[in-house]
Specification:
By secondary structure, this protein is an alpha/beta fold. It has 14 helices and 16 strands. Bound molecules: pyridoxal-5'-phosphate (PLP).
Length: about 425
Amino acid sequence: MTGPRPHPNLWYPFTPVGSMATPLRVLRGEGSLLHLEDGRTLIDCISSWWVNLHGHGEPRIARAIHDQALTLEHVLFAGFTHRPAEELAERLVPHLPGALDRIFYSDDGSTAVEVALKIAAQFWRNRGRPRTAFLAFEGAYHGDTFGAMAVGSRSLFTAPFDSLLFEVEHLPFPERWLGDDEGGDQREEVVLREVERRLSEGPERYAGVLIEPLVQGAGGMRICSESFLRRLAQIVRKGGSLLLVDEVMTGFGRTGEWFASTRAGIEPDILCAAKGITGGFLPLAVTAVGEEVFGAFRGSDPDQALWHGHSYTANPIGCAAALASLTLLEEKEGAFRGMEAHHLRFLASLDPERTHRPRAIGTIAAFDLRTDGEPGYLHPSGRILRERALERGLLLRPLGPTVYLMPPYSLTDAERDRVYQTLLELIAD
Ligand SMILES: Cc1ncc(COP(=O)(O)O)c(C=O)c1O
């Protein structure tokens, strides 16, 4: 493959330096397409790490950014406020599940999760009954900062730091797929009983239960059932703990509804969102809570305040981008609602001899390649498919043998057909 060498002054993320492939230099993005310096054009089948919603270079977001930059590019967000942050909160709240009506801004998915964990822990401390334990799920990924790593599953990504992470109790994530085995209900039951048992045996122990609702992203696009999530929410409520949902990936239409929590009909206590919030233009994140949680922070005692913030908290340009993205989402809800039916038809056409565990929800479709050897993030099948797909004009980034699609909502019918057809050919190959 031709292209520039890795830049001598750059350190690329998630990349073993010694075996790094030559990175592809992107000149321009337009709709669902990326135009490369070497003349090729790729369909972005993964929304550039799941952030892009409306397509690259969406002019209405670009203009909103331009206008805001000329008006107020940034101001500290303590002791000062501004309309973009206020308006974004006002317009986000009606789309959030349940009674979440209080927005705390940060920078990205990891920081949104850090904030959620800190709010949960301090909530109990402020109420005079400190709790510090968290329940989370095996296979979870919540980001790369230390708190986010701690609540995530231990993995290749966390191995160098495992001894530095606070302990979190992880339970199996009862994944489902189309036509799954009869054990699915049983697996859900076991997990739910276990959550129930732990919460009742340690009623003052758990600050919160954290889950990626309906879909575990980086853990392999693993989907759980809506009824599992609903029952989990009931058990957490009954057990007197807080339900934290990490909607960093699932938010803003990815599961076919505004949020996965909305789709499942649950009312979490704390919700994290980031990635798609600005339509993929700028880093911005929110952690949302309702009055029940916020009430524990209302006091004037400095000891009860949430002492957390970032230089760019509530950056006005980021908020302006998010407002423009929200408008587009509101205008074109059909774009994220309509994709699931197409995905399901595509999955039904996959060769079951070569693939298994087909699954889809909203704008996400996934399946696993039938392969030899230990499945996992480093399984070579994913890398090979990624390289072949690039040759055929598709940007994919399989998670080991798990192949998934999560395209921007701008994907045209013709582009969608081309993606499906190319994938079928690649798998047959
Ligand atoms: C569910 C989930 N939470 C948190 C994160 C971390 O987000 P960020 O990479 O923006 O820090 C990710 C990133 O993939 C994610 O998928």
